[in-house]
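## retry 2 of 3
previous attempt timed out at serialization; input unchanged, resubmitting
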Amino acid sequence: LGGSENSPNRRRAVEAAETGAEVIAASCPACLTMLESAIRDEGLGDTITVKDISEIVEESLIGETMKAGAL
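## retry succeeded, writing output
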């Protein structure tokens, strides 16, 4: 899935990492898999991660719940 060094998915992963982003959000399972593979192939796993948008929403809701003292 990672493709050649010049594949669009690997270029996207590198471009995202170059922005300083720590997380790439994806809502498409195929995009999630493609980006995870590209990040691994580019050796960017310590720099940036890919999450499904539902994971980000869940983390946000859990964080808000903890701030409110409900947990």
